[in-house]
Amino acid sequence: MTADQVEALIRQVSAVSPAGERVYDAFRAVPRHLFAPPVGLVDADGGGKRVIDRDADPQDWLRAVYLDTAIVAQLDDGATDIRTAEGDFTSSASAPGTVADLLEWLSPEPGQRVLEVGTGTGWTAALLSHLVSPAGAVTSIEVDRTARRPEDKHWSETDVVPRTLAYAPAGAGLAISALTGVGSVYADDRDEDGEVFRLWLSDPVDPHSWGTVEWRPGETGHEVYQVGDRPLWDEVTDAFFRWVSWGEPGPGRFGMTVTPDGQRVWLDTPDHVL
Questions:
Q1: DSSP 3-state assignment of 222?
Q2: What is the pLDDT of residue 52?
Q3: CA distances from 167 to 92, 149, 150, 178 (A)
Q4: How do the domains of the chain map onto residue ranges?
Q5: CATH superfamily ID and name for 3-227
Q6: What is the pLDDT of residue 189?
């Protein structure tokens, strides 16, 4: 990796992203190749996907890592060898342009605390750690134990380490993630006008589908921005109104049954599956 490759990536991203210089400084401090999967799938010139392999062709792998493109890191929840390039994409390293947009919309500031749901390769957690350092804290949760975990040595090489990196047991997750499959990141921001809360929504499978919502206490209108094929905010509001239709039950009335065949979320009793 050279600084030239990082700067070339930043030029690619800045041509399409409104992200500010703080985000790009984070790109410089946290090189993407430290967190990229050693074997993955990227877009092929003629369509479809092709394999990149750090051991087999390190130069080709490095060139692909420093392009503004997503890298598929897992197929079929780890059941299918990534080299086959056949199967459902179940984990990926989001395109840097998408990450830059999300970080710009989230606007994390030094000293803030951030919760990330879905660690994945760990690159976003490391970028967030840089943006909220030195006094902030990042907690990142990953429910998929088959996903590639970031290596400890790579955290140390960036000089920015999430305070807590927790791998939750199978079946665990936050409410939105467990019920709708929408990954989410929360952060809080305080300015001279009061508190502003931002919610970041992301599709764990399709990195091009994401959204943000900004809420200020006391205001009835909320700014919503969503892109991609999956209307994430519409799904969240639909889930909310379903919750209202159930009588606004508290968290103690919900349960989850986890078996080798899957998981079921229920209300009040296991036979009342949602």
A1: coil
A2: 96
A3: 17, 9, 11, 15
A4: 3-227
A5: Vaccinia Virus protein VP39 (3.40.50.150)
A6: 44
